[in-house]
Automatic annotation (TrEMBL):
Residues 196-351 form the Glycosyl transferase family domain. This is Glycosyltransferase-like protein. Signal peptide: none annotated. One of its GO terms (molecular function) is hexosyltransferase activity. It comes from Paraburkholderia bryophila. Residues 16-176 form the Glycosyltransferase subfamily 4-like N-terminal domain.
Length: 397
């Protein structure tokens, strides 16, 4: 079969889960021989945190971003202008990975500038602002086909919204994250102020957000410190388009109340956004990844941590329960501070902890990682793409 000309759309140049998914998918599709272009909105001078081996079109953002609504609108407009400029109808397939690009494609579809589009829903967010909520809804309602990265969200889309969604899982680049000490690990730890006094490291990836349950994790970590006083919590990442300032202020206030110091070489380190190249070393430096989110589309960092040889404490909720079990993670109730603390202590094999069970890195973890690879994900996408193209091909009289 002839190669497809595919346009993928992602909302940000920053390392968020959906953006990583887009770039890994673009890489895998390119390796399969398809002609891929990634569209991404950017202010002047911005570049993607990781460049895929395909064409990248930066859609210039020209409007001021005085609010979240204005920011979203500016990015929708940027996508529309860029796609029109690059001849939207010349692509066989247009695939949006988020609500922002989904709205741009929905508007172009309504104006008959494109024949249709596919949308991947990673997860949905609750919005108090009616316009943001409407944009999120339109991005999946107007799509011609909806994909989800977990069966949890595919089921949610079908049962709650009447959308016939197809599950197409993520993958993980095992070679990038495989467990082997690199010469720059110690340099990274020193630069970030990690591993004070040689104590165990609890890592959380994704920044400080309500959805990531960071405040509850902080409470649990305070309990861990009572057993392991040299432990350190590292909160990494946090490049987000949404406003999490109020939640961050709450966390900082609670840290002060708990007498938890924040800063390099302190009990809590908040790194902010990191270079993509630093992430494998950061995973290797951790003794456990705490992934105790309240809501996730899939939780890709879980696979990345396991590929790095790092045990995981995960929320005992879907979608984690779809692909993890007792041999590949330690479970915690994300709403229960004591449950999270106990799971962290089991993972760290702390003295006095009970019910410790080692993650099976010899058999169960390799089997899990083998189930999720980007080549298989890309091929699954291509099968869906070809059916879509056959169904939506223009009729020539």
């Amino acid at each position: 079969m002839s190669p497809l000309r595919i346009a993928l759309f992602t909302h940000s140049v920053n390392p968020r889960g959906g953006v990583v998914h887009t770039l890994e998918l673009a890489t895998a599709l390119t390796a399969l021989g398809h002609d891929v272009t990634v569209f991404v909105p950017a202010v002047q001078g911005e570049k993607l945190f990781r460049l895929p081996p395909c064409r990248v079109v930066y859609a210039p953002i020209v409007l001021p971003q005085s609010s979240t609504v204005a920011m979203v609108e500016a990015r929708i407009d940027a996508f529309k202008r860029a796609l029109i400029e690059h001849e939207a109808l010349s692509f066989d397939l247009l695939h949006a990975q988020d609500s922002i690009s989904g709205n741009a494609l929905a508007e172009l579809k309504a104006k008959e500038c494109i024949h249709g589009f596919i949308r991947t829903v990673h997860h949905l967010d609750p919005f108090d602002d009616s316009r943001l909520a409407a944009w999120q809804r339109r991005a999946y309602e107007d799509a011609d086909q909806v994909l989800c990265v977990s069966e949890t969200w595919a089921t949610e889309m079908r049962s709650a919204y009447g959308i016939d969604a197809i599950t197409v899982p993520n993958g993980v680049d095992v070679e990038r994250f495989k467990h082997e000490q690199a010469h720059d690990d110690a340099t990274l730890r020193q630069r970030l102020g990690i591993n004070r006094d040689g104590g165990p490291i609890v890592l959380a990836v994704g920044g400080i957000e309500a959805r990531k349950n960071t405040l509850t994790l902080l409470e649990a970590f305070a309990a861990v410190l009572r057993v392991l006083p040299r432990a350190q919590l590292v909160i990494a990442g946090g490049a987000s388009l949404l406003d999490h300032d109020a939640y961050t202020r709450r966390l900082l206030q609670r840290a002060a109340e708990l007498r938890l110091s924040i800063g390099p070489q302190e009990s809590v380190v908040v790194t902010g956004p990191l270079d993509d190249a630093a992430m494998p070393a950061l995973f290797r430096s951790a003794d456990v990844l705490a992934m105790v989110s309240l809501r996730e589309g899939f939780g890709l960092v879980v696979l990345e941590a396991l590929a790095s040889g790092t045990p995981v404490v995960a929320s005992a909720i879907a979608p984690f329960t779809e692909y993890l079990d007792d041999s590949t993670c330690y479970w915690a109730n994300p709403a229960d501070v004591d449950s999270i603390a106990a799971a962290l202590l089991r993972a760290l094999s702390a003295p006095g902890s009970s019910g410790a069970n080692a993650t099976d890195f010899e058999h169960a973890v390799p089997a899990l990682l083998a189930r999720f690879n980007w080549t298989a994900s890309a091929q699954r996408h291509v099968d869906i793409y070809r059916r879509f193209v056959a169904k939506h091909a223009p009729v020539i009289n």
